[in-house]
């Protein structure tokens, strides 16, 4: 499988580490021989028809932070690489943008029009233009996979599509952002103000320097739109979500909730046409009351009842569990077409 990697930040570099570690086992177990024929970041593109030296690419990024410093790298954008380099799959792992969806949206559409399958961890384009991406993939006969865009290592989409394929999913509720869950957990255990715990999370690398995407509920809302569209057949966009973040949560409010038998959690919910992200009271003994940076989601279904899944929702290595799953799924789809 010839793969182009667009974006070489945490997720892209995590994939390189995983392939160096698991490349042989993937080939032996799944017949999946992944060859990264190009890697692009904001500085340029490295390409090699026989496969880019992933270890060397990681070394260059570790020392310089710029892929263009890789010997032989070209001033070629990700979009140009998609259009000019032969490949089977494009993995789009650039930074999410919920205002325009770019540059990820253009990357994905270009790849599909080039008859290349798309795997992505990028939420922004899906939160804005899900139907367009889905219809473009169908029109061009390619696979469009995005497990990594929602739950990191937690296989939310695969659970719904495979294990619950005979059920109608009536509602989905969950904690879909590990950063906010970490902050709320620490505020409860330390009885510390929001600002202090946020700073601690930033120092640990759990929260970004600009944490607004997480703490204002934007990340959770993006994921909620993807779940509503992909699992419940909605035609939702980011603008349809009612959003309230956690900036105004106080230690006093959290302590009062605990005394009443509840935890304060940032919950995303899709039920019918209603999509909402907001802090809510969750009973201390409820499955949604997970601690630290964990994610959790509960599916309300017509046959199985409630089904809950818990896992790591982020992490450069962990998220690539979902990307590998999507690549294996594409390999399986291609085999079925040939039969």
Task: List the keywords.
six-stranded mixed β-sheet; Rossmann fold; 12 strands; Dihydrodipicolinate Reductase, domain 2; 339 residues; single chain
Output the strand order for the largest sheet: 3-2-1-4-5-6
The CATH topology of the largest domain corresponds to Rossmann fold
* Percent of sequence in beta strands: 15-25%
Instruction: Report the end-to-end length measured between terminal Cα atoms.
Output: 18 Å
Helix and strand pattern: EHEEHHEHEHEHEHHHHEHEEEEH
Number of helices: 12
Q: Biggest β-sheet, characterized?
A: 6 strands, mixed
Extract low-pLDDT stretches.
Answer: none
Helix content range of the residues, please? 40-55%
Structural class: alpha/beta
Number of beta strands: 12
CATH architectural group of the largest domain: 3-Layer(aba) Sandwich
Number of domains: 2
Q: For the record, what CATH class of the largest domain applies?
A: Alpha Beta
CATH superfamily of the largest domain: NAD(P)-binding Rossmann-like Domain
Description:
With 339 residues, the chain is an alpha/beta fold. The protein folds into two domains: 2-153 and 317-338, 3-Layer(aba) Sandwich (Rossmann fold), CATH 3.40.50.720; 165-312, Dihydrodipicolinate Reductase, domain 2 (2-Layer Sandwich), CATH 3.30.360. It is built from twelve helices and twelve strands. It has helices spanning 10-30, 54-64, 78-84, 104-113, 123-139, 156-163, 178-190, 194-203, 212-215, 218-232, 251-259, 319-338, and strands at residues 2-6, 35-41, 44-47, 89-92, 117-120, 144-145, 169-175, 242-243, 262-271, 274-283, 294-301, 306-312. The strands form two sheets. A six-stranded mixed sheet has the order 3-2-1-4-5-6, with helices on both faces. It has a six-stranded mixed sheet with strand order 8-10-9-7-11-12. Helix 3 packs parallel to helix 4 (104-113). The chain is globular. The mean pLDDT is 95.
